[in-house]
């Protein structure tokens, strides 16, 4: 066994270098080095004695909505706010047998307690891996009581930094650019996996959101179906027109809810915002996902996104919890009409108050917004500016 665990090295755009490796139980681990990294090219081998990976979870179809619900019992045992000295996302040390063997800039690895996977459909599509794997989108849409499928797919963890505290918004512009490059690389790789229909990068920030680790990180889910939210979006595009996102850009650009304008990006509070803090960020030209952003758009995104997150944190004296959801077009449908965009939302409606979903919202999906979107936009503009 050699001292270097790296299997392959690839130089990406922006000077970012990708180094592929494996963890002790076979999970994929990828290091993304900053263009100005001070790290050596070698990485340590993961020498832990790990238990076998869990069985792939099961999905059940909700006959009332047509949605698929994953039942992943293995997630009951995932890490829950461990002490800083046992941070599972920090680089390994003699006293901390964490998930990342070496020092790193950005690291991505397969989740040990995934909602989806580790099984995938076979590339041939003839004999799917795992019992009762989805056969196609038509198969998933078929009616019937008691329908189940294997929850094939993949869930990955994206570590933004080796530091034990922080979030995406606490990173430098250079580091933010490296993470964006990692998102693009993983979107391409995960979209190519057999059985994957949609790739979703996101960041949960704050214990009020349900975060179980304080380490600055996000996740990427690769679904074997098109998510309910995107299915609804596709239906709206069919009603409103294939150029719906350009319509939105033109409409919001001319209105009072813009919070930040850049050459390639527009940030705004949407006309019908649900949450007390809600901001969308969209590229001015069509791009289905991160892979379709050019280098200039990725460079500018690093700066624009950090400015937005900085503004969100300046709304109050303490950090604001949020979900930063990067909506991307599905792998096989809607590529020419669904434009990638960020939807950042927070339930924080005052310094010491959170919005909890009431019966009408949680049970019926009928929302009431307490803060007018125009007021929310004005506050964000001031905080960002």
UniProtKB/TrEMBL annotation:
Give the originating organism.
Microbacterium sorbitolivorans
Q: Which prosthetic group or cofactor does it need?
A: Zn(2+)
The residues responsible for catalysis, as annotated, are 217
PANTHER family given in the database record? GALACTOSE-1-PHOSPHATE URIDYLYLTRANSFERASE
| An example molecular function term from Gene Ontology annotations | zinc ion binding
SUPFAM superfamilies in alphabetical order: HIT-like (SSF54197)
- Please name one Pfam family that this protein belongs to: GalP_UDP_transf
| Galactose-1-phosphate uridyl transferase N-terminal domain boundaries | 57-226
Family stated for the protein in its record: Belongs to the galactose-1-phosphate uridylyltransferase type 1 family.
Name its pathway: Carbohydrate metabolism; galactose metabolism
* Identification of the protein by name: Galactose-1-phosphate uridylyltransferase
Q: Which UniProt keywords apply?
A: Carbohydrate metabolism, Galactose metabolism, Metal-binding, Nucleotidyltransferase, Transferase, Zinc
What are the Galactose-1-phosphate uridyl transferase C-terminal domain coordinates in residue numbering?
239-382
Superkingdom field = Bacteria
GO biological process, alphabetically ordered: galactose catabolic process via UDP-galactose, Leloir pathway
Catalyses:
alpha-D-galactose 1-phosphate + UDP-alpha-D-glucose = alpha-D-glucose 1-phosphate + UDP-alpha-D-galactose
**CC per GO annotation:** cytoplasm
* Enzyme Commission code(s) on record: 2.7.7.12
